[in-house]
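Section 3.1: Structural characterization of target chains.
Under the original work plan, the team committed to producing a structural model for every single-chain target entering the pipeline before any wet-lab resources were allocated. The record below documents one such target. The sequence was received from the expression subgroup and is listed exactly as submitted; it comprises 124 residues.
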Amino acid sequence: MDEEERQKLIAYRKQRQKEKELEHNLHRDLRSESLRTEMKSIREQHQNQVVTGAIIFFGTLFPLYLFLFGFYFFFNIYFATILAMVGIDLGWLPTFLHAVIWTASIISVYLQRSVLDMILDRVT
């Protein structure tokens, strides 16, 4: 083996070593990026469940409070004096409405669908 062949072989081995290192680094980077992407998707999946649950909970809670207590207060404005004359006390009704509203909101999160949606589906 003469000097020229030996230099070619050394250059070929250096080139091959650089290609192997580049391939190894690329594989390592792709694997780590793949792991990061997978961890991010898992985190987003769990975060989205929490955010979706919160949206459903408050999306049920606020409209029910507005509707039921608005109706209750208008009912009190128009009929409270008449009911007081007759002797009917509706002091228990706000507590009952709070319990119904909170229960409906919790059930909505459990079912992953708002109780209001189910009521509207039945009505329409």
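The mean pLDDT is 88.
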